[in-house]
């Protein structure tokens, strides 16, 4: 799992080292890591010696990191030019750079065209203008330079951002109207949250973290990015002596005469995930379809360990009864689609809500906390998902091309995007089935629900890589679940 921290947390972790006089040592360690990545990438493209490297250099430590790295590259035969963006470069870094043979060019509005041409012709551009403390929004002359360069740069040009791309918020991933679009970002001490979130992750490209000795143990990560190693470590496994009740029983309210397929997909996914028993409460149009393929599904009421309600516009009264039962028995539940329309207050039990952007917009409007449009939710998914999580005191899984899972405390889980094959009707119903099954099979454990939802999204994405439409997802899901279980 990759962990991302806010800029403030990283600065707090740096503070005792800076107070101890280790500032330059930290910079040289960071610069050495940056130079190492630059050398590797240049070598993969050809060779370091003779390569054309242009650096955009700001006034602060970010620029100092770039200058020390540039000195390293120049000493190995690269032709390195530093464009002094603000007319005040890091003194020690500039001295090391010029003594290694690097060239410096001052930038101003009058020579913007020449500077942009220099950038466009480079094999490698190093963006060392602004660091973790900067916010989106650039002076117009700098924004014009970046636009002029990147809109007509050579296809495949290497662009390495130092710590965070200029114009990107290191904590939130928010991007200004003009920002550097990097192929790679080399960040220091800890992954910055903004590099792992929508917007920032696209601008950052491939992120490499260089360890400079920061102790982040006292700081809560703002972002968790789970990966396949987490599936292997935390996916629930059947144990010797288990039976159907100890494995977990899921109560499912899904499907209707109008949308019977949604109920069938959700039920199929829950069974494929490996729930001990599935109790399906649905009309005959749904249950008949499910029983033809999964005769083990029970279509009657009884004890359960978790609930999932909402896919396929189920009967509102049946959904409300399930939600009431979950609250009275303190059982976890997943609420999707039609079930979201029943929410008017925080529930008195743990739950995961799974809206898409349009449903989240409607939910926030109904709760009286503002009415963002669907487009606004899609533009700022993290902010709106967190707001909903805080208002409803629940885990909010905002579905989209990049799924965001928000906790009420403002931290988020942000799995990598799944394959585009998941952009079809019914795949959200499959995700609800996975989530419900995981809630049932992990009942009684202390696993964090947002982390659990992250596992579900990862497994959903794996299955999506082996299916072109929702009907085949449960079959692919079962194969992927078995593959993870075999890793034990």
Automatic annotation (TrEMBL):
Reaction equations catalysed: (6S)-NADHX + ADP = AMP + phosphate + NADH + H(+); (6S)-NADPHX + ADP = AMP + phosphate + NADPH + H(+); (6R)-NADPHX = (6S)-NADPHX; (6R)-NADHX = (6S)-NADHX
Residues that hold (6S)-NADPHX according to the record: 61-65, 131-137, 163, 262, 312, 356, 429
InterPro entries: Carbohydrate_kinase_pred_CS (IPR017953), CARKD (IPR000631), Nnr (IPR030677), Ribokinase-like (IPR029056), YjeF_N_dom (IPR004443), YjeF_N_dom_sf (IPR036652)
Cofactor note: Binds 1 potassium ion per subunit.
YjeF N-terminal domain ranges (all copies): 10-220
Coiled-coil regions listed: none
UniProt entry keywords in alphabetical sequence: ATP-binding, Isomerase, Lyase, Metal-binding, Multifunctional enzyme, NAD, NADP, Nucleotide-binding, Potassium
Its biological purpose: Catalyzes the dehydration of the S-form of NAD(P)HX at the expense of ADP, which is converted to AMP. Together with NAD(P)HX epimerase, which catalyzes the epimerization of the S- and R-forms, the enzyme allows the repair of both epimers of NAD(P)HX, a damaged form of NAD(P)H that is a result of enzymatic or heat-dependent hydration.
Similarity-based family: In the C-terminal section; belongs to the NnrD/CARKD family.
Annotated protein name in UniProt: Bifunctional NAD(P)H-hydrate repair enzyme
Encoding gene (name): nnrD
């Amino acid at each position: 799992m990759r962990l991302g921290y806010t800029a403030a947390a990283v600065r707090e972790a740096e503070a005792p080292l800076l107070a101890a006089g280790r500032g330059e040592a930290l910079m040289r360690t960071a610069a050495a890591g940056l130079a190492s990545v630059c050398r590797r990438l240049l070598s993969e493209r050809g060779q370091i010696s003779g390569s054309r490297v242009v650096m955009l250099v700001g006034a602060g430590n970010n620029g100092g990191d770039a200058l020390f790295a540039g000195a390293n590259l120049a000493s190995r035969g690269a032709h390195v030019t530093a464009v002094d963006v603000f007319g005040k470069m890091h003194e020690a870094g500039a001295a090391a750079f010029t003594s290694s043979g690097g060239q410096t060019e001052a930038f101003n509005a009058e020579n913007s065209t020449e500077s942009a041409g220099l950038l466009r012709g480079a094999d490698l551009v190093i963006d060392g203008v602004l660091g973790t403390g900067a916010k989106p929004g650039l002076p117009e002359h700098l924004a014009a330079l970046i636009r002029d360069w990147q809109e007509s740069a050579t296809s495949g040009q290497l662009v390495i951002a130092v710590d965070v791309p200029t114009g990107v918020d290191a904590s939130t991933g928010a991007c200004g109207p003009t920002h550097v679009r990097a192929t790679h970002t080399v960040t220091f001490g800890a992954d910055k949250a903004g590099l792992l979130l929508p917007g920032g992750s696209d601008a950052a490209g491939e992120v490499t973290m260089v360890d400079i000795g920061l102790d982040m143990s006292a700081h809560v990560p703002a972002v968790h990015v789970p990966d396949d190693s987490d599936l292997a470590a935390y996916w629930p496994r059947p144990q010797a002596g288990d039976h159907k009740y100890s494995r977990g029983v899921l109560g499912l309210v899904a499907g209707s005469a109008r949308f019977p397929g949604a109920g069938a997909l959700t039920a199929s996914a829950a069974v494929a995930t490996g729930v001990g028993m599935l109790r399906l409460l649905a009309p005959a149009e749904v249950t008949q379809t499910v029983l033809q393929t999964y005769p083990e599904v029970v279509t009657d009421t009884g004890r359960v360990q978790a609930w999932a309600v909402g896919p396929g516009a189920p009967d509102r009264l049946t959904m409300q009864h399930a939600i009431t039962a979950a609250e009275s028995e303190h059982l976890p539940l997943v609420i999707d689609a039609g079930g979201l329309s029943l929410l008017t207050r925080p529930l008195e039990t743990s739950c995961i809500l799974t809206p898409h952007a349009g449903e989240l917009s409607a939910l926030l409007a109904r709760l009286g906390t503002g009415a963002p449009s669907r487009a606004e939710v899609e533009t700022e998914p993290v902010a709106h998902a967190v707001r909903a999580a805080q208002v409803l005191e629940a885990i909010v899984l905002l579905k989209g091309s990049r799924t965001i899972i928000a906790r009420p405390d403002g931290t988020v889980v942000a799995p990598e995007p799944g394959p585009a094959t998941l952009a079809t009707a019914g795949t959200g119903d499959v995700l609800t089935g996975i989530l419900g099954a995981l809630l049932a099979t992990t009942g009684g454990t202390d696993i964090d629900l947002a982390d659990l939802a992250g596992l579900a999204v990862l497994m959903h994405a794996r299955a999506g890589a082996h299916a072109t439409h929702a009907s085949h997802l449960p079959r692919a899901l079962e194969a992927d679940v078995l593959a993870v279980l075999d890793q034990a």
